[in-house]
Every structure is written in structure tokens, then in C-alpha cells.
Amino acid sequence: MTTILVTGGTGTLGRRLAERLRTDGHEVRVLSRHSQPYGVDLREGGPGLDAALVGVDTVVHCASTPLGGDERAAANLIAAARTAGVRHLVYISIVGVDRVPFGYYRMKLGVERLLEESGLGWTVLRATQFHDLLLRLFEGLARVPVMFLPAGVSDQPVEVAEVADRLVELAVGAPAGRVEDMAGPEVRTFESLTRAYLRASGKRRRLVHVPLWGAAYRGFRAGGHLAPERAVGKGTFEEYLAARSRTLRQVRH
């Protein structure tokens, strides 16, 4: 079995990925700003990053933040991976980063280009938004009696555990370049997804559709972040909400 480093290994995706890799018998190192013994801020790099990569065969790069710095972090990771002789760098990106001119998407696309030019063996998987992200969004919007939704926007959420399974397959395989996108099973309007959340949570809110502006909004309205032809995910948003509700009840009891 191989030694695999997972950056962002304490996050929503990275945690599940690390668990699956360990279950399969791989030695897994988790790197994040606060995890030990590999507590490293990739934006700063340094000796801690070099030490984390000693003897590593494959890196799965899940660390990311909308606050900025992803490209600097990736550049540091790539340089250290070259020095360490890493064979394969796998990156999780987002469907539509080359079609929707949204700041965070542009940053993710920039990381993809750094990988392509790195001289390392690389694989990039683009996925649609995770169910967990939508839940956090709706919980925030539901804090007030009226939920304001972007008019005319749909989404195609995917189960994060399924993305983790796919990344396991890619991590143990040979570098494959950009592989086929991974999207959830259904393209749904924001209103449909919001109503599913309200039913599951037992909340009552008035929904108001708000037309926004700008090139990024036009890109989302046009469905640039969707991949209906790659609806390979199985779990629906309702199934995710039901499973989460069962877990919360078990924890309480």
C-alpha cells in the first residue's frame, strides 16, 4: 500500500477521504493548519510541508478557501512535491470553473493550470456543490422570516461521500489528467431545494426570488456550474437531509 498525503484532511471532504483510504490499508497523513503532527499553512509552506511529504507517493489536494490564497498554497505544495519526488498529485476542483466568472472559481481554475504546468503526474476531478454546502447556505438564509433566493438559478448537488469514493479510485490509480466531471443525480431549482430543506427542518419561511447582476450571476443562471450529462451521483438532497436527521436523533439519544 502507498503513503498518501491529504491536504485539508480535517474538512468536509478530506476527513471522509482520509477515512476511506485508511480503511483500504493505506498510510494516510492529514495536513491542515491545525492537525498534528502535520500542522502546516500551505500559503506559507516551509520545513513543516517538506517533512510532511517525505516518503509520500500521492497527494490529494483538498485544502481550499474562498478567502483567497489557493494559488499561492498550490505553488508551495507543487514545489515541495517536486523536491520530495511525489509521483501523483490529485486535485478536487469545481464544475464550471472555466465557464462562470466567479472569483473563487477563477482561483480554482488557476490552481488547475499550475498543476498542468507542474511537470508532476496530475489528476483533476471537477465536482458540483456538496449537499453540505447547500445546507449551510439554507441554514444561514433561514435565520430571518424571509429567505431571499437568487432568481432563475438551479443547482445539481452531489453527496460528498460519493466524491470521496471517486477520489480514492483516482488516488490509487495512475495520473490521468482531467477526468470526467462528477455531478449529482438531479438538476433542481433553488426554490425546490429550499423547500426540501424547509420540510426536513420543520421551518416555515416566505421565499422571495431576487434578480442579481453581474457576469457571475449570468453564468450561474445559464447553468455554467451544472453538468446534466454527468449526473453520476446517486444520493439526492432529500436523502442527505433524512440521513442527517437520523444521525442527529441518535446523537441526542
From TrEMBL:
Please provide the record's keywords in A-Z order.
Photosynthesis, Photosystem II
Keyword rRNA processing attributed: no
What Pfam family is a match for this entry?
A: NAD_binding_10
Q: Does the keyword Zinc apply?
A: no
List, for all copies, the residue spans of the domain called NAD(P)-binding. 8-132
Q: Which residues cross the membrane?
A: none
InterPro entries xrefs: HCF244-like, NAD(P)-bd_dom, NAD(P)-bd_dom_sf
Q: What is this protein called?
A: SDR family oxidoreductase
